[in-house]
Amino acid sequence: MAISKKKRLSVVAAAAALALVFTGCAATEGDSEGAAQVEVFSWWTGGGEAAGLEALVAEFNKVYPDIEFVNAAVAGGAGTNAKAVLETRLSAGDAPDSFQGHAGAELMDYITAGRLEDLTFLYDSEGWKDVMPATLLPLITVDGKIYSVPVNIHRANVMWNNPTVLADNGIEVPTTWDEFFTAADKLKAAGIVPLALGEQWTQLHLFETVLLGSLGTDAYNGLWDGTTDWGSADVMTAIDVFGKLLTYTNDDAASLSWQDAAQLVIDGDAAFNIMGDWAEGYFRSDLGLVENEGYGWSPTPGSVGTFQFLSDSFTLPVGAKNRDSAISWLKVAGSAAGQDAFNIKKGSIPARNDADKSIYPIYLQSAMDDWGSNKIAGSLTHGVTASNAWKAEIDTAMALYVVDGDADAFQAALVTAAEAQ
Ligand code: GAL
After folding, report:
1. pTM passes above 0.90
2. Where does the pLDDT of residue 46 fall: very low under 50, low under 70, confident under 90, or very high at 90 and above?
3. 104 in contact with ligand 1, CB cutoff 6 A
4. 79 in contact with ligand 1, CB cutoff 6 A
5. How far, in Å, is the centroid of ligand 1 from the Cα of 392?
6. Where would I find the H helices in 195-251?
C-alpha cells in the first residue's frame, strides 16, 4: 500500500525519535550491562606511546573509577593505519567516544565537515583558556568555538644520536647539512650507517625537517600560506639535500617502524636518526636509557633556534555513544595531573603553561625552554600545516622521488599540489 509523502516523513521522524531514545540510554549507561564506559581511539600501541596512554588512563581511572576505559587504538606510527580505520568508522556512523587528532589543518578537516562537537563549554568550566598555549588555540578554533583538547606538544625537528658512536669516531654533532655530510662520509667509511631511516611516513618526516633546515623558518612557514614559491631554486636545493641524505641511510628503511629505525642508533649500528621526540619517550620510558649516555639530541641541521611542533589532541565526535563519559575523559586529558602523567612518559611537553618544569626529565626541560624561546614552525607529517588531502599529495610525490630520483618531477608535483589549495 502506498503511503503519502507526509506520512512517510512522520514515520521517519518517529523512527529517528525512537533511535534517539535508545542512543540516549546508551549514552548515559554505556554498555548493555549498564556500566559506564568510554571508547577512546588513538594509534598509541607502540614503544613509548603505549606507556604514555597507560599513564593517562591510570589518572582517568583514579578520577573516574566507575567508567570503564575501552582502548580502541589501531597500531601504526603517525596514525597511518588508524586514520583510515577512523574514516571508515565515522562514515559508517560508528564514531568512537573520543579520537586522537592533530591540532591544525588535520583537525580542521573534521571540524569543517561538522564531525566534532564544540568544546568551548569545557574551556570555560575548566579554565583552559588561561592556561593552554596561545599558539595552539587558533589551530582548533573556528568562529570562536574550540573543538578539541590538546594533550601535549611534540617537537618534530630533533636529531637523535648515539653518544658513544660519535665519541669513538671523533664526530661533533653537525648543525648544518654540509657539516652533516662531512660527518656522514667519515661514519660511512667506518662501516656505520650515518642516518637511520624507517617506513614512508618517517621519510616524509625527514623531508619536512630538510625543508625547514634548508629554507629557514620564515620561508618554510611561507610554504603553507602561499608566500613561499614551491617552484623556487631553494626548494630544489632542499630536494637535492634530501636525495643525497637518502644515500646515507639503511637499505631496509621501507620495512622498519620508527622504533626499529631508532633502535639502530641505540644499538650503535647507526649514528643519527631524525624523529619526533616520542623517540625520547621510547628511549627513556621503554628502554630505560639514560639521557646523554644512551642517547643524545640536537635540533635537526639548519634548524637551531626553531621548534617545529605538533600537538596531539582529543575530540568529542558528533554521535559519540557515551558522550558524558567522553566529557569526563576530556577533562582528565586537559588537566594538569593528566598531562603530567602522560607527557613525562610520552616524551612530550604539556599543552599548558602552568606545568611544574622541575618534575620533568632533562630532555623535556630543554624542550620546554625551547618552546618558550624559539621561533615556531608547524609539522607537515603530523597535521599542523596541510590538510590530509594536501599532505597525501606531497607524500605520494615524495614516495615516487624516493624510487625514481626525478627531482624535477618531484618539484613539479609539489607546485601542482600547492596550486590546488
Ligand atoms: C605522531 C603523534 C605522536 C606519535 C607519533 C608516532 O603523529 O602525534 O604522538 O605517536 O605520531 O606514532
Report:
1. yes
2. confident
3. no
4. yes
5. 17
6. 200-215, 217-225, 233-246
